């Protein structure tokens, strides 16, 4: 069973969601930046813009803001945190108790799982296609 009170349960779940979402969002941003660099090398050169430390800092800030927004939503009563079914840890309460909780779970599914996974898959598929096309063009010459 969960050994601590509800406040510690909420903090534990909040940290798990925050770090999990920031990890997936970081991987999504990394795959997208790699895709832009490999597949569109002229991207950014049109305006003489180079990927800099400022760009990286901005992307990291966006990743953490995105993760914080979804992790803090249950603290603002959009969804909730509670003990897992076995009671040994805490996480998002997956059984919706209201329409708002259902919307939060759907938003998590779409914005925090499906969209990042699709972006990662599309990025790496485009990278593979670009490498394949480049090898094919090289063999022709």
TrEMBL record:
SUPFAM superfamilies linked to this entry: Family A G protein-coupled receptor-like (SSF81321)
Location, primary (coarse class): membrane
Gene3D superfamilies membership: Rhodopsin 7-helix transmembrane proteins
Keywords assigned: G-protein coupled receptor, Membrane, Receptor, Transducer, Transmembrane, Transmembrane helix
Any Pfam family the entry gives: 7tm_1
GO MF entries: G protein-coupled receptor activity
Transmembrane segments: 12-36, 57-76, 103-132
Compartments in which it is found: Membrane
UniProt GO cellular component terms: membrane
Domain annotation G-protein coupled receptors family 1 profile: ranges: 1-141
Annotated membrane topology: Multi-pass membrane protein
Ligase listed as a keyword: no
The protein's name in its UniProt record: OPN5 protein
Native species: Pheucticus melanocephalus
């Amino acid at each position: 069973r969960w050994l601590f009170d509800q406040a510690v349960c909420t903090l534990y779940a909040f940290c798990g969601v925050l770090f999990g979402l920031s990890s997936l969002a970081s991987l999504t941003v990394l795959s997208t930046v790699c895709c832009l660099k490999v597949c569109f090398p002229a991207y950014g050169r049109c305006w003489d813009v180079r990927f800099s430390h400022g760009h990286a800092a901005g992307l990291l800030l966006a990743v953490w803001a995105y993760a914080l927004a979804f992790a803090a939503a249950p603290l603002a009563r959009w969804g909730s945190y509670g003990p897992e079914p076995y009671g040994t840890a805490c996480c998002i309460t997956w059984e919706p108790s209201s329409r708002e909780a259902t919307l939060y779970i759907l938003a998590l599914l779409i914005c925090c799982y499906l969209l990042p996974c699709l972006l990662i898959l599309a990025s790496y598929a485009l990278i593979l296609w670009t490498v394949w096309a480049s090898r094919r063009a090289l063999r022709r010459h």
